[in-house]
């Protein structure tokens, strides 16, 4: 190799490192701006109520929308508010009474801010809704500049969506790719996820799937409102308040995904697995609903692949690395529900509309595979250490190679030249 070649290679390496550092910093700045904006938006004219999302009724014809639902954390006693609804440029204003729709009762006596839903009727409105505020009965509209955007729920008949709740802290980017590719194989149309302070590599993965069209990402505030310092990690979890913080995300999922045929509330370490690996919609339409025509939803037993038991399979995928699981248990179960037949839900429960029922699938061949650590791995009395241990190579044999090659196609932090109109570089995941 000539001296010139050495210098050229060094120069290329230095430029690549510089670009990588610059783009990582740019992406981090973008993420910080993303979070700061949502922290502004959750504030209202009242210091006691904080809006997390405002969602219009799902209608193909927007002129037929009858209401907007506000998903909030509420510290008020009397819940006495009005909705101020704004059109373009905040000029046209429509004021209407905010009707309390639902209060999440779990531990509400001990939480400072309670997860609630308010409904604002918009039947008499003749403007295109852009933003909304909650104000006290004695407050004026425009009492502050903190408006919350109105989201329009999509109508997607016969489509399947996943509410993945809140992504936070560190997520393994390889495992995240594996999870998304599995959902695509299972014919999932949309994954809705709220983002709170995650690692940059995982954020890049999520942005890739957002660009691909399967992921819908909504920012969640880094600092939750109220006086209690808390978070979603175990050591920062507040027994009562954090449950309500999580429920606001579930409420938001419920409203944003109301126009889908089927919705599952699962996390990114959970896989819904059918014995023959049928797609989710096919399972429901060909196997479950013909047998249970009055079902509002289906509760899935969970098998736990405890990572503290040690590696029992082969690298590198999560589903190939751990192949020892518990027997299916009615413990920390999850649900697939039909939005048009369901009144409400939380992470583990659902409440059917009148005339429908929740079906517990105790013996069916569709199970929730949950890959996790023991919550208290240093405590050998934790319940997870008492689970039975069964070898299950289903995912390893049937899906490893397909998922593995799909995962390999995605490369981290590749530079792609944006369009000439944008004139800049971005880090993204892309197919080779």
From TrEMBL:
GO molecular function, one example? glycosyltransferase activity
Superkingdom per UniProt: Eukaryota
The protein's location, in the record's own words, is: Membrane
Note the InterPro entries from the entry.
Glyco_transf_92 (IPR008166)
The entry's keywords: Glycosyltransferase, Membrane, Transferase, Transmembrane, Transmembrane helix
Q: How does it sit in the membrane?
A: Single-pass membrane protein
Q: What name does UniProt use for this protein? A: Glycosyltransferase family 92 protein
Species: Mytilus galloprovincialis (Mediterranean mussel)
Taxonomic lineage: Eukaryota, Metazoa, Spiralia, Lophotrochozoa, Mollusca
């Amino acid at each position: 190799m000539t001296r010139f070649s050495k210098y050229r290679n060094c120069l290329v390496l230095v430029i690549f490192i510089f670009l990588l550092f610059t783009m990582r910093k740019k992406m981090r700045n973008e993420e910080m701006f993303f979070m700061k904006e949502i922290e502004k938006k959750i504030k209202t004219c009242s210091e006691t109520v904080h809006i997390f999302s405002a969602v219009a009724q799902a209608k193909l014809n927007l002129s037929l929308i009858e209401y907007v639902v506000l998903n909030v954390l509420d510290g008020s006693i009397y819940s006495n508010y009005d909705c101020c609804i704004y059109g373009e440029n905040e000029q046209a204003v429509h004021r209407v009474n905010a009707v309390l729709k639902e209060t999440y009762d779990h531990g509400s006596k001990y939480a400072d801010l309670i997860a609630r839903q308010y409904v604002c009727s918009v039947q008499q409105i003749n403007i295109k809704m852009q933003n909304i505020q909650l104000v006290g009965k004695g407050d004026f509209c425009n009492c502050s500049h903190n408006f919350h955007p109105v989201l329009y729920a999509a109508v997607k008949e016969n489509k399947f969506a996943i509410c993945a709740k809140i992504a936070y802290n560190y997520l393994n980017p390889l495992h995240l790719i594996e999870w998304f590719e599995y959902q695509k194989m299972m014919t999932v149309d949309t994954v809705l996820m709220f983002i709170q302070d995650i690692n940059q590599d995982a954020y890049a993965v999520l942005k890739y799937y957002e660009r691909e069209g399967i992921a819908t990402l909504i920012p969640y505030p880094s600092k939750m409102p109220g006086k209690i310092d808390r978070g979603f990690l175990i050591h920062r979890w507040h027994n009562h308040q954090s449950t309500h913080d999580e429920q606001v995300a579930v409420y938001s999922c419920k409203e944003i995904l109301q126009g889908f045929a089927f919705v599952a509330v699962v996390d990114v370490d959970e896989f819904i697995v059918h014995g023959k690996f049928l797609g989710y919609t096919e399972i429901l339409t060909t196997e479950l609903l013909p047998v249970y025509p009055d079902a509002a939803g289906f509760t899935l037993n969970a098998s736990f692949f405890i990572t503290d038991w040690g590696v029992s399979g082969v690298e590198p995928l999560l589903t190939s690395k751990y192949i020892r699981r518990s027997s299916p248990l009615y413990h920390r179960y999850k649900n697939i529900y039909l939005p048009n037949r369901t009144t409400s839900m939380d992470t583990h429960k659902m409440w059917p509309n009148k005339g429908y029922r929740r079906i517990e699938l105790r013996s069916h061949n569709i199970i929730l595979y949950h890959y996790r650590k023991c919550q208290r791995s240093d405590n050998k009395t934790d319940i997870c250490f008492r689970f039975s241990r069964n070898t299950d190579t289903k995912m390893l044999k049937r899906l490893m190679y397909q998922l593995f090659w799909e995962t390999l196609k995605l490369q981290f932090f590749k530079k792609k030249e944006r369009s000439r109109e944008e004139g800049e570089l971005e880090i993204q995941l892309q197919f080779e």
